[in-house]
């Protein structure tokens, strides 16, 4: 019997750890996307020039900024979280494509981290990993 109690406590600890990791990842992703979106909306120096150099318009930059802010908010709401992660996967894939095709390899680390984190978070949410423990 004591073995079962320890097993249950251990599983509860694992569930709590997974939950805290998810919460931390969601927070970091959302804060970066909010920061990035705001930089695009306020016309942070160099941002518009970068978009023009990549062949994108000013309005495309504004649209991406708005989408980033919407996704940053959507990851916090449980009903929209999976759709937000899917949107982040698509958005960061596009960002990676842009940076790689323009030989800006130093710019890919954050987008790559967000892409991998979003894929992992979407996978955890869709498989309901916490519920299976």
Total number of domains: 1
DSSP helical segment count? 6
Mean pLDDT across all amino acids: 89
Instruction: Please state the oligomeric state of the protein chains shown.
Output: single chain
Helicity level: over 70%
What distance lies between the first and last C-alpha atoms, to the nearest angstrom? 19 Å
Structural class: mainly alpha
- Main β-sheet description: none
Strand proportion, as a percent range, falls in under 5%
Task: Let me know the number of strands.
Answer: 0
Query: Quick one: overall form?
Result: elongated
Uncertain runs? none
H and E string: HHHHHH
Gyration radius from CA atoms, angstroms: 18 Å
Textual characterization of the structure:
With 133 residues, the protein is mainly α. It has one domain (2-132). Helix content is 84%, strand content 0%. It is built from six helices and no strands. The protein has helices spanning 2-41, 47-53, 58-74, 78-101, 108-127, 129-132. Helix 1 packs across helix 5 (108-127), helix 3 packs antiparallel against helix 4 (78-101) and helix 4 runs antiparallel to helix 5 (108-127). The longest helix is centred in the first third of the chain and has 40 residues, at 2-41. It is elongated and about 60 Å long. The two termini are 19 Å apart. The mean pLDDT is 89.
